[in-house]
Amino acid sequence: MSTVNTTDFSELKLNPDLLKNLSSLEYESMTPIQALSLPVILAGDDVIGQGKTGSGKTAAFGLGLLQKLDVTSFKAQSIVLCPTRELADQVASEIRKLARAVHNIKVLTLCGGTPFGPQIGSLAHGVHIVVGTPGRIEEHLRKGTLKLGAVNTLVLDEADRMLDMGFQDTIDEIIEKVPENRQTLLFSATFPKEIMSIADKVMQNPTIVEAPSIEEGSTIKQYFHLTNTDDERMKALRLLLAKHKPNAALVFCNTKSDTQDVTDELAYYKFYAISIHGDLDQRERDQALIRFSNGSVSVLVATDVAARGLDIDDLDMVINFNVAHDPEVHTHRIGRTGRAGKHGIACTLYNDKETRKLELLDVDWVDCTSPLPSDNYLHKPIKRPLMTTLKVDGGKKQKLRPGDIVGGLTGKDGIPGDKIGKINVVSNWSYVAVSSELVKTALQKIQNDKLKGRTFRVRILS
After folding, report:
1. What's the CA gap between 443 and 440, in Å, rounded?
2. What is the predicted pLDDT for the residue at 218?
3. Position 462 pLDDT exceeds 90
4. 205 and 255 share one domain
5. E strands along 227-368, which residues?
6. Which residues pair with 120 in a beta bridge?
7. Which of 374, 1, 45, 406 minimizes the C-alpha distance to 204?
8. In terms of domains, do 101 and 121 share one?
9. Across-strand partners of 130?
10. pLDDT (tens digit per residue) in 370-383
11. Whether 186 contacts 195, CB under 8 Å
């Protein structure tokens, strides 16, 4: 990882027209992600950059591709892939702003949910920079209306979000059409292992840059709560969930039967909970994990065995409904929260007989013993998950792709692309998470319109 060396834009070897325009925009000092990445980008090297929306990453890659643009050639020389139409519009707008002082530059957005015909006409008149969503760009490539043979810069913006939305295969197909002797720039808010596998396949010795986080390290607060009866333990679980209102909480039980009992009890009290255990078949397990990872269920109840291989980074809370059998398991359980500099809460429920187990833990559990929240929390409304899952009765075997679903949802009278969450397309089904407040609109959009020229059954999973 590179370190920050904050400097002025004027110190970079940029085209004088670009520098003059930056000054008029009052862009003087670089943000951390710009200071880290721009010198490397301008040197022509591949870059993997970690930066969220608002970090200044668009200006970093935008200046890089504008610096080497040949305005006399009306062939696509740079292509920027974005997860949603809204982000593509923002990126294109920022690039146009950065390019104001350079005459005759044509930046075109190609996104689903907008008419195809006018895009073909715009492409026919020539273009320098293409910004768009994977599904629509792949469609243009398939129909021969977009050529990428002259591309010298490929940008994957918010790559983790594109993977969440199921665009891995589509991105692979697009990359195959881009010349190998190109510069590849990948920006992502997080670095899941899938990102690094993409980088290994499509990048040449990339420089990894990461803007420093305000919060460093992980912060997990542990609490231990004495509950001597089964009823007390169940009530304690409800109180903790009601007080902390986690978007994502993992509850650990030691047996399959406890897992199902806890889930049934939470569901009875209107919590958005689901379980995974050994008695589920693979389809049921996959569906449960999809709903939890896409944010449409806020509580997942599991045994240690069932939770093995569960790769969910953004957990607000872990609750040990039962004390773990050994200290290593306890450490592994609570280590699932508080990752990547975020705060996490780990609560353990225990009875008097289990204090021997607690004494083996690498923590002063007595000092972490805490009273349970007030019973008043039980009378407050349960927090609804931010997302809701739609299940479409069509998948890979029906040649349905994530781009088809995004296009179908965002077309006329549809929903904004930034209200669409993770998309999972499997053999005969597809699961798409949409913002809960727009789920009825999304449902009607798919019910009333066609996806890929066909009508598919769709329902809300609850």
Report:
1. 5
2. 54
3. no
4. no
5. 249-252, 273-276, 299-302, 317-320, 343-350
6. none
7. 45
8. yes
9. 79, 108
10. 999 999 999 998 98
11. yes
In a domain, 456, yes or no: yes
Task: Give the pLDDT confidence of 15-39 residue by residue, as tens digits.
Answer: 999 999 998 888 878 988 999 999 9
With tokens 């769709």, the residue in question is: 458
Same domain, 154 and 22: yes
Residue 2, pLDDT score: 46
pTM of structure? 0.74
Same domain as 361, residue 228:
yes
Dist CA 274 CA 248 (whole Å): 11
Residues 6 or more apart in contact with residue 412 via CB below 8 angstroms: none
The pLDDT mean for the chain works out to 90
User: Do both 255 and 354 map to the same domain?
Assistant: yes
Contact call for residues 323 and 358 (beta carbons, < 8 A)? yes
Listed residues 141, 176, 210: the one ending a domain = 210
Residues in the chain: 462
- The pLDDT tens digits for 276-327 are 987 888 788 889 999 999 999 999 999 887 777 666 667 899 999 999 988 8
What's the alpha-carbon Rg for the chain, to the nearest Å?
Answer: 25
Question: What was the pLDDT predicted at 329?
Answer: 87
Q: Cα torsion at 205, 109, 82, 410 (round to 10°)?
A: -160
Q: 67: which residues sit within 8 A by CB, 6+ positions away?
A: 14, 15, 18, 42
Domain count within the chain: 3
Domain that holds residue 309: 219-379
Least confident of 82-86, 124-128, 258-262, 420-424: 82-86
pLDDT above 90 for 63: yes
User: Same domain for 254 and 306?
Assistant: yes
Selection from 53, 46, 49, 4 nearest residue 29 by Cα:
4
Domain boundary among 175, 210, 245: 210
SS3 221: strand
